[in-house]
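G., the chain you wanted modeled:
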Amino acid sequence: MNLRTLTRLTFPKGGLAVRYSLFFLTGILIIFLIAFVYSYIFSRKILMEEGKKDARTLTDLTIVRLENIIQPIELVPQHLVRAMETIGMNEKEAIRMAREYVIESPQVFGSCLAYEPYTFNGKSYWYAPYWYETRNSVKFKILGNPGYDYFKMDWYRLPKLLNRPVWTEPYFDKGGGDTLMCTFSVPFYKTEHGKRIFRGVLTMDVSLSAFERIVNSVRVYKSGYGFLVSRKGMIINYPTTVLIHENILDVVKKRKGVNTFKAVSEMLQGKRGFVKVDGLRAKQDPSFIYYAPLSSTGWSLGIIFPEQELFSDIMSFFRKLAIIFIFSVLAILVTTILITRKFTRPISRLVEATRRIGQGDFQAPMPIYRSKDEISQLTNAFSVMKEELMNYIRDLRETTTAKEKIESELNVAHTIQMGMLPTGFPVRDDCDLYAVLESARAVGGDLYDFFFLDENHLCFAIGDVAGKGVPASLFMMVMRTLFRSNVSLSEPLHEVFRLINRELCRENPKQMFVTFWAGIINLETGETEFCNAGHNIPFMVEADGPILKVRQARGIPLGVIENAIYTSGKMILGAGATLIIYTDGVTEAISADKTFYGEQRLIRILEESAQKKSKEIVHDLVTDVRNYSAGLEQADDITVLVLGYKKMDDKTHFNGKG
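Predicted structure as tokens:
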């Protein structure tokens, strides 16, 4: 026995054990997934809050370190300018002290005292003594010449215009310090006649490398970093040196990250925030950025926190948890299947026994169990079912034989009933008659009849017994026999109806009744005598088109009241006139939306078929009724008789007679 066969025997495909185990396992999975997702979201939220706090703390500490560098650089030139303006410190002393600060402060690259044109002496248009550091010493030079017109440079022009100290944007000081730097410029003045006159600026130059050590010391996980931008977006410090001195707005526009652009815009507005961004560098994974301003300079510090590294611990934890859960689920599945198979093995035996019974082997033995659990009760129930099924099949065979006999007899009755209906419709020049009867069952209670009383008098009739099936058909045969035996040219129709009604009422223990309409037409003159015993009102279609109802001579159905009185009517059919008589199986046909066929739809069909022959009119009407009730079982017998008169040209006239 190979492994596949062993697996099939242990875990049968579609077996109750497998399905029950899978159902049970599905419930566990759903519960676990809900708990897993909730725990992950909750843990991620907590980790995000903690990360935000750590980011804020790290950013604030870095800003404090930067401010500790910047604030002394701002204080020294401001104190020197104040001393020059208040206690009369001369320029040489101020330059000497600035030179000493350049030497002592590792962050300061140089210092310059730049004068307005011809202010230091009347002969010099430019005069700006400048001390600056080189690799091994401090050098001195006088700035100012046509190639280095410092009057047009921001470090001189802005404090003069704004009348206050100013930090410049990062720039390369070509011809001065010949390096990337930022300059803090303080304007100084001279008071003459109570009026302050601008004389120049005192500067402190800071090389961008002075901030590099602090900003680059920011380490967040493995690949996080910090960067510093100026008020206008110039990158002062960045791990990738190629971006230094670039505008950060131009950099993020190339990345096409909406969140990144929004964060950088808020940085330049001096705001503080913590948002998710798409990364500033190419091929950088999504990250979070915390940004905050430097209050003294208006610069902004941003620190990047890689998202993947921020959540790496929680992801690692949940991966391990998922692996443990998968192995646990497999163990539960195998255990559940083995336990379930132990309880379902008796059911398998019961299934085999019922399968044999289903194939007709009623002698198949049922398994026997001594226990009193549900399986034992189910087995006993199947044993009882087997006995009852055997009895039922025996009774069913007897019933089927009897039913087949009844159906055979009904078919014979249907043949007899249909054989009693006249089918040889008259072929004459003076009339066109056609009729059809469609029973709802094998035999029905509708009837149409026609026959000649002499060469020129045609008697025609239609009836509908209340009820269906064999009783209705037998009652209709009695009705037809009575009608044919009593109708004659010497007896008016209303008297014939009175005699028939009396006979039906005398021998009618089931109190059955019939609606009946009959007429006798003189084919030479078109004069027609008719009588209506509660039947549907016929329609008359004249040669010129109008459709009229033959409402006269109406009475109650036959077989209801023994002494009922009936009335005959008379009318003269004109040439081309057509008489349509029908049973309620036409107008009371029901559609799928539970609405009746009705007289209005019948009139519309008659209008469309008015000029056709009687057979075509009958066919159009019956076909439309079938289509109207399409998909539903026929509820009642449908009978239609159409008589067309062809001889006379006169109009049709109605006359009542009692």
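The chain has 15 helices and 24 strands.

Shout if anything looks off.
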